[in-house]
Design a protein that fits this description.
Blueprint (H helix, E strand, L loop, with lengths): L2 H12 L7 E4 L2 H8 L9 E6 L5 E8 L13 E5 L10 H15 L7 E4 L18 H10 L4 E4 L1 H9 L3 H24 L6 H17 L7 E9 L23 E10 L2 E11 L4 H18 L8 H14 L40 E4 L2 E4 L3 E4 L2 E6 L2 E4 L8 H4 E2 L1
Parallel strand pairs: 1-5, 3-4, 5-6, 9-15
Antiparallel strand pairs: 1-2, 2-3, 7-8, 8-9, 10-13, 11-12, 13-14
């Protein structure tokens, strides 16, 4: 954990004048934020305290199979547990009970403590086929271990903590952006009339895996690719995009969305390609998306209301004749998760968020025309005091690259 993240945790513990004695988290994205270590199974418990010297102390209880994934120096103490041997079968809650109790005693948490815990109203950033998440049994375990203590749901405070990224975390996101660039190059090479959406997704996913694991220090790479072409791309504004085996037709729009995760840090991007040619209508739509991005970038900086940035982009889309076709907000935060539409800062007409230096968010003006297709231009932006930085600027957005001959 870098010093900037430590300082923000100390501030969280004393926010509002009510001191916390400890914070305990299990959601994978929160463990990544607090420790820099990505839990694989979602069954890691992270106990956070601040000592008398106002230094953050981290203690971890985790499955024994994951202990090799914890970088040296991550925590002052690590306890492992086993859920199953050839002699018995247990479950996470019972197996972690004693190791976690030992960490609580070691941390010197006294009677009647105030303990911050996470509610679970947000998406979960999974790192494996399935992942454990907090539930009633986890909450009951905490009640039993912190006997006489007061458990306080600090989900909102954790969201605020996650919204501002440190420079080390931004560098981790940059690595994802570079890998995504390789993925889009592969997608471009795979798109042609007759290829299926699945063909394009397969080539893209393979490229992301190769580039991801070639990144120094990468030990867990998660590439997700969603390809929707032709009339199906008109539905890409929905909460999820799904691949089909439909063949791409000459002149189709081909929307390629990807989420790239390396060691628990995420980027989320989209480019829409054009198979062989582009119509005047789609050329005009693409120009509107580029202009909307450029206009938004003129206003993105510390202290600006997020809804104002959305309004700037939305005004450009409206003047170009595509207002009703831009069917979602301009963007949302990402980094410890890929797609959480409530992650700060939310750039949306109804948002009350304010941009602050260190926030990262996507910026995705789009045009969806029912029965015809859809395009989305999704880039990633870092807010700075005096402006912004486009983290995905290495990925072209010009038609010379997006129209695939």
């Amino acid at each position: 954990m870098d010093n900037a993240r430590k300082q923000r945790i100390v501030e969280m513990f004393t926010k509002g004048g009510e001191d916390f004695h400890a914070l305990i988290c299990r959601l994978p994205q929160n463990v990544v934020m607090l420790t820099g270590y990505q839990p694989i199974l979602g069954n890691t418990f992270c106990l956070v305290t601040v000592n008398a010297d106002r230094d953050v102390e981290l203690r971890l209880a985790l499955p024994v199979d994951e202990q090799d994934f914890v970088p040296p120096g991550t925590a002052v103490e690590v306890k492992t547990y086993v859920e199953e041997t050839l002699l018995y079968i247990d479950n996470t809650i019972e197996a972690v009970r004693e190791p976690l109790a030992e960490l609580i005693r070691s941390a010197g948490i006294n009677e009647n403590p105030v303990i911050g815990y996470e509610g679970i109203y947000s998406p979960v950033a999974a790192a494996y086929t399935q992942v454990g998440v907090p539930g009633p049994a986890t909450l009951e375990l905490l009640h039993q271990l912190f006997l006489g203590g007061y458990l306080r749901d600090v989900s909102t405070m954790l969201d605020e903590l996650a919204a501002i990224k440190t420079e080390d975390e931004i560098e981790a996101i940059r690595r994802c952006e570079e890998v995504a660039h390789q993925g889009f190059n592969a997608a471009r090479g795979a798109i042609h009339a007759g290829a299926t959406e699945a063909d394009v997704a397969a080539e893209t996913c393979a490229a992301l895996l190769r580039a991801g694991y070639a990144t120094p220090g990468a030990n867990n790479v998660l590439p997700y690719v969603h390809v929707m072409a032709g009339s199906r791309a008109a539905l890409a504004y929905r909460a999820f995009n799904l691949i089909s085996n439909n063949p791409i037709q000459y002149g189709d729009t081909v929307t390629v969305q990807m989420e790239v995760c390396i060691n628990g840090y995420w980027a989320e991007l989209t480019r829409s390609f054009f198979a062989g040619t582009i119509s005047d209508e789609w050329r005009k739509a693409h120009e509107a998306c580029v202009a909307a991005q450029d206009a938004a970038l003129q206003s993105i900086r510390d202290g600006v209301p997020a809804r104002a940035v959305d309004g700037t982009a939305r005004s450009v889309m409206g003047k170009a004749g595509f207002g009703p076709a831009f069917k979602h907000g301009l963007g949302h935060g990402f980094g410890f998760q890929a797609i959480n539409h409530a992650a700060a800062p939310v750039l949306h007409p109804a948002s009350n968020a304010v941009l602050h230096s260190g926030m990262v968010h996507n910026m995705e003006p789009a045009v969806y025309l029912e029965g015809k297709g859809g395009i989305r231009l999704n880039d990633n932006v870092l807010v700075r005091n005096d402006g912004n930085e486009v983290l995905s600027k290495m990925i072209p957005r010009d038609l010379d690259w997006l129209v695939v001959q």
